[in-house]
Write a structure and sequence with these properties.
- By secondary structure, the protein is α/β, with parallel strands linked by helices.
- The chain has two domains: about 200 residues, Rossmann fold, CATH 3.40.50.2300; about 130 residues, Rossmann fold (3-Layer(aba) Sandwich).
Amino acid sequence: MKSTQATTSIKRGFAAIAATLALFSASAVAQEPIKIGAFLSVTGGAAFLGDPEQKTLELYVAKVNAAGGVLGRKLQLVAYDSAGDAEKARTFTKRLIEQDKVDVIVGGSTTGETMAVVPLVEAAQIPFISLAGAVVIIEPVKKWVFKTPHTDRMACEKIFIDMQSRKFSKVAMISGPGGFDKSMHGQCLGVAKKYGIEVVADETYGGGDTDMTAQLTKIKNTAGVQAVLNAGFGQGPAIVTKNYRQIGITMPLYQSHGVASKEFIKLAGAAAEGVRLPAAALLVADALPASDPQRSVVVNYRNEYESHFKSEVSTFGGHAYDGLMIVVEAMKKAGGTDKAKVRDAIEATHGFMGTAGVFNMSATDHMGLDLSAFRMLEVKGGNWTLVK
């Protein structure tokens, strides 16, 4: 009898110890930070993208933590500077997955970097929200890959709709050699006929070119051209804009959403006057009517960013804000950081108001924005204005 009682007592003791260890284990897990991985072009030719993106992630990770974190856990940002280099992006993504063991990745400032790491995140089955623009990132749909910026195809369509309204039907194009440039160039050619647009001249420039007057002169001398579209991003479009004015082209000039920041206006100077491009409402936050449901989101983000960093906001930082907040909401809905559940929750994002617009994702749409999320802007008086 005593032996049985002793055995029961020992079993109860072990059970109590096990319960205590489980409690400590659960508590330890609850205290572990949620790791947000990022690789961004903070330096190099695409720094105008990566710098505001990293600053935004740092600012809002701190804000989320100050408010108590996510599900009682703090966020930890693990970020690397890929400098726009696809091979560096692959190296850092491997590190984020294998060594840092991040729970999700928000990053990829450029299309080239993003596409280079897609096989890695798909193989590792880790949720990845890209901050790059090309439609090839999400078409065809890749199970673990999402994006927050508007696509290049959407930019082509928004521009062509504006051209239609101005009775332009014969257009010249000029573009650079980058992944985004090539993708947007192809997308514009693909949808041009849908909008009654005929591309009558098509020129290209190199990544290191500092003068595009030869290409622009050909466009100027092409009969029938009514407007010109530069499908590109980086410093190339600013050079194109300057050369455009220098050789006296008077036709309207359109740029891509890839240069939607005050930096483009600074680089192009007075030559930027009259340039039009599609962009998020963030750049014209104060011009939005009080009744616009997006106004409070973009005004608050702009005020917080500019107050903290003492520098002007850009749509690129806004894409990082959208990506991080979508992840935060997804983890809350998933009830934790289980990667498959978080992936499913991101895909189910619906009605989320971001700086880029309203996100309604689905199994067939891993971005979730439509053309209404784009606003047509024009440079007037050295600033962005909303085209009415």
